[in-house]
Design goal:
This protein starts with a helix and ends with a strand. It has 13 helices and 4 strands. Among the domains are: about 80 residues, no CATH class; about 60 residues, Orthogonal Bundle (DNA polymerase, domain 1), CATH 1.10.150.320; about 60 residues, AF1531-like domain (DNA polymerase, domain 1, Orthogonal Bundle). The strands form 2 sheets. The chain has a two-stranded parallel ribbon. A two-stranded parallel ribbon has the order 3-4. The chain is mainly α and about 280 residues long.
Length: about 280
Amino acid sequence: MYLSKRHRRGLLWLLLLGVAISFTPRLLASLLQPKVEISYTTFLKAQSELKEVSGDKQEPDQKKSSDKKKKRAYRTPVSKFDPNLYQVSDWMKLGLSEKQANVVVNFAKRGIKNNNDLSRIFVIDSELFDLIKDSTTYLNPINKVGVPEKKIVFVDLNSASMEELMSVSGIGEFYAKKIIERRGKLGGFVRKEQLLELWKFDEEKFNKVKDQVIVKGEPKRININAADIDELKSHPYLSYTEANAIVKYRSQHGLYKSIEEIKQSDWIDEMVFEKIEPYLTISND
């Protein structure tokens, strides 16, 4: 059958139109389909969930590395110790590794003067420092050339002589006399902080001597069931009014059964009681 040129051209256009009609819906669907953007956080979360589902386990090498990072179990010292004298094995007993213990020993060769110096050693973290800080004592500091200095000898405030008190760094002849005078009036010291009651003996002076002195023994006590006003008021912690109140309460209510009873008087407050209580006793003899 013969087709003219015009008919052939029309048939071609018809064919092209059919192809266009066939592919147009697919093209439109791909163009109009919304894009889905996944954030990096969502991607990581999905990846983590996928690992859990698939039972992804930590590799042996990773587990070994993780175990090394676990906190070391520190231990409290069994007794007071001087960090300058501790050996590697001693530090290891407290929980440090051998490498860390060597670091501390090397620092000690240059001298650890106090807890402030100790806390600056980078291998001693806050957890270990809190465990050992109350057990440290610096009796034998190391000087700059690495030679131990003369060991400090503790001086007992209740028995020391003038010369012994003057051997304490920070206590001269003046304060040595004042300490002995105060000791006599009190009947003995019960705590070293009582040095702060001395004239112009401030916190700075106290901090300088507190680690060189100790308080031993029992103070002289006053029997509140037998003492008169003069004996009571002779103590530095009691005024005439307070001494009179103690004696007056005894005469009105009978002998004291406990030292705490003196607080029944309006003149004996808690502050006065805390100071005088170590110097009182009761006896019916």
